[in-house]
Amino acid sequence: MKLCWLFFSLLLNVHVLPAGPNILERFTPKFDPMSVRDTAKIKVLNFATFHMGSTSDAHSVEFDEADKKNQEDARQIAQMIVKFRPTVICVEVTPQHQAELNAEYRAFCTHPDHASTYYGEVGLVAFEVGRLMNLDTLCAIDHKMAYNYNINEDLINAIDTATYQSFQRDPFQSIPGLNIFEDGLPLKEKLRRMNHPKFLDFLITANADILTYVGTQNGFEGADEAAKYYQRNLRIYSNLNRLALTPEDRVFILSGGSHTAFLNDFLRRSLKYAVVDTMDYLK
User: Fold this and answer.
1) CB contact set of 243 (below 8 Å; sequence gap of 6+)
2) CA 86, CA 88: separation in Å to the nearest integer?
3) How far is residue 134's CA from residue 130's CA, in Å, rounded to a whole number?
């Protein structure tokens, strides 16, 4: 009865509001230009890619990083990204390897005619972007954490096996036209699909949220594994926030698609960053 009375009281309060020209002001948030002024925020091009070299990911796109045609395609992608005019480049390398990353980058800049395959897409794309922009260094922001993609195989699922298995049978059913594993797709089209908002949402489902359908009768094993992946990406975001950036900086982040997906969520809610549309640079 208390809940019903509370609801009825709220209705009464609405009905007795005074009429007049100022009534809308009570319901309209005051405009605060300092809180929404994107011009004061740091522009970020948050770019999703598959791993163009060796990877521990459960699913990987077939790509020979030593193939000359693939290397040329990667350089063309780099030339598209240069139009963003980045002043900072962040890559999926852990900070512990920062010195190694920049040693490899400087070696590439000395001999750019020899393609670098360091961390696959890092050497093929990020290094070329940095070279074309005449940047001195790149920033390593990755963070590693153990994570069991296959927790479902380690227990008897008592939550929702039907939903989990239906998704695993045909993951791309929910995003028709965005399957990046189709034969014959050129690199640019693969990356266009990967950076589509629906594909990025799909990656969060596939890498984390689907595990919430997995667990024992009284356990949350799947959800706890998913939480580790959320935690890893929050730590990557925290590494980004460690960088000394100014509003004049323009940040290009190159990482595996699932990290891009999580970072997009964090960046769009940020008081510090403004995300630009990746598709503007894949035309």
Assistant:
1) 88, 90, 139, 141
2) 6
3) 6
| Contacts of 42 by beta carbon, 8 Å cutoff, 6+ apart | 245, 246, 247, 249, 250, 251, 272, 273, 274
Lookup: tokens for 166: 């239906």
> Half-sphere exposure (CA, 13 Å, Cβ side) for 190?
22
CA distance 126 to 37: 29
Residues in the chain, how many? 283
Predicted confidence (pLDDT) per residue in 199-241, tens digit? 999 999 999 999 999 999 999 999 999 999 999 999 999 999 9
d(CA 30, CA 26): 9
Q: Determine the Cα–Cα distance for residues 241 and 18; give it in Å rounded to an integer.
A: 47
Determine the 3-state secondary structure of 250 from DSSP: strand
Q: In this predicted model, what pLDDT tens digit does every residue of 107-128 receive, in sequence order?
A: 999 999 999 999 999 999 999 9
Q: What is the pTM of this model?
A: 0.84
